[in-house]
Amino acid sequence: MPSVFIKTYGCQMNERDSEAVAAQLVAKGYTLARSEGAADVVLLNTCSVRDFAEQKAINKMRNVAGTARSEKRTQILGFMGCMAQSRGKELIDRLPDVDLVLGTQKFHRAAEYLDELLAGKRDKIVDVEAEAKSEAAIREHLVNGSSKTATSAFVSIMQGCNQHCTFCIVPATRGEERSRTIPDIVAECRELVGRGVKEITLLGQIVTSYAKRDLPILDGKSPFVQLLDAVHEIEGLERIRFTSPHPKGYGDDLAEAYARLPKLCESAHIPLQSGSDRILKLMHRGYTRERFLGIIQKLRQAKPGIGITTDIIVGFPGETEEDFEQTLSLCREIAFDNAYIFKYSERRDTPAADMPDQVPQEIREERNHRLLELVNEIAARKYDAFIGQTVQILVEGPSKKNPARFTGRTRCNRIVLFDGSERHRGQLMDVLIERTGSFTLYGNPAIVNL
After folding, report:
1. Closest Cα to residue 19, out of 125, 118, 129, 152?
2. CA 64 – CA 40 distance, rounded (Å)
3. Count of alpha carbons within 13 Å of 125, Cβ hemisphere only?
4. For a tag on the chain, would you pick the N or C end, based on fewer CB atoms within 10 A?
5. How far apart are CA 247 and CA 245, in angstroms?
6. How many percent of the chain have pLDDT more than 90?
């Protein structure tokens, strides 16, 4: 049977989509290749959030196609995901070696279309049309791509986004919000736990918007908190996480869920984007600096020690030095555990791309550097505070960077490396932290004196 190589760009939603496509293909008899050069089919699952991500994928495909031609190899080449959705046939016009362009609501068609291309039944396929119920069409999961049981798994609970931030192309590439039912999600989670999964991360473009137009509030609980309650009841599941939320979704019921549900990990990734109310309004974010700060305070009251990370954009159109200083000051006040910082990137067909006062690239670079220095300084202090502490981790397996060590995550989502073995995989274990690295903790299994 043919072999396939899938390379993923972008977010955890893309990672989950790639895994589902791979699992679907393996079920049909395909094998997973270790590299593009060894594959009969090469699929790039793409991201459109920033121009850099798009150019990286296009250049990668150009190189793959060029190598195949020079070595006289026949390969099926395809783009999937967000860039495929936004550009469609333009990608084949630009790169004639590409055979398949698969949109964000068509991942479940991958095996069908590849079979047709490999059999010579069709020459080129472009499918970026919307498809009803696509949010529940793929449930397949790989088991770590091997016979080893996965410790954690992503479960997609919804697709699309209705937020329409002025800088973001996602509503155009992922469509409007469409949510799966609670019983459907719980059944998938229960199946994964039955296969040995201990931790589940619920995924959505704005995960806290889950089913808000489909389900009523019950006993003061939003549909998303109702889902958390239902997943929490699954016997054998140890941990629950979710990403990515929107600050507007953090009502009292969600804050209380952190204190009420033992399996819900004390970890929250809440995108800030800017500390300036003026810029937040231009971004169409729907909250203020004060509101965001209130959310953080509420979460820390509900769950002391909660790990809080964020996303921040620097150099948004019209951002002044004063606006940027407000972002710096809010970061100092909140003291995030980590922050993913992005230089503003113009995306076509978004309102921000046509706004006046575009910030020069060199200023974006300089602000990115200053904010990164601050974030790293704060994070280093917070990580150093773990030295000498005993933390609980869920062991995921060998470290990708150093297979001689094993890796796991704390409940507040910090990576821990330790000297371990395959017998530790999937275990919840206590580790004594001895030193820190760059956003990494190092330790040894704690010895409990009985």
Report:
1. 152
2. 12
3. 24
4. C
5. 7
6. 88
CB of 148 closer than 8 Å to CB of 397: yes
24, exposed or middle or buried, with CB in 10 Å at 0-12, 13-18, 19+?
A: buried
Q: State the chain's mean pLDDT as an integer.
A: 94
- Which pTM was predicted? 0.92
Instruction: Return the beta strands (E) in 373-427 as ranges.
Output: 390-398, 406-410, 415-418
Dihedral sign for Cα atoms in the order 186, 192, 198, 203 = negative
Residue with tokens 């932290």: 433
Yes or no: say if 349 and 370 are a contact pair by the CB < 8 Å rule.
no
Instruction: Output b/e per residue, 237-268; b: 16+ Cβ within 10 A.
Output: bbbbbbbbbbbebbbebbbebbeebebbbbbb
Of all residues in the chain, the percent with pLDDT exceeding 70 is: 98
Q: What is the model's pLDDT at position 143?
A: 58
Question: Hey, what amino acid is at 161?
Answer: C
Gyration radius from the chain CA atoms: 22
Q: Record the tokens describing residue 285, joined without a space.
A: 């974010």
Task: Output the CA–CA distances (angstroms, integers) from residue 390 to 133, 151, 430, 444, 447, in the order listed.
Answer: 46, 21, 6, 9, 10
Which strands form 199-203's sheet, in the order they lie side by side?
Answer: 152-156, 199-203, 239-243
Q: Which of 275, 282, 216 is nearest to 247 (CA)?
A: 275
Of 267, 227, 274, which Cα lies nearest the Cα of 243? Answer: 267
Structural tokens at position 238 = 């140890």
List Cα–Cα distances, 134 to 82, 109, 281, 380, 385, in angstroms. 15, 10, 33, 43, 45
What 8-state DSSP symbol labels residue 86?
Answer: H
Residues in contact with 193: Cβ distance below 8 Å, sequence separation at least 6, in sequence order: 200, 234, 235, 236, 237
Q: Is 50 exceeded by the pLDDT of residue 348?
A: yes
Indicate the pLDDT class of residue 404, thresholds 50, 70 and 90: confident
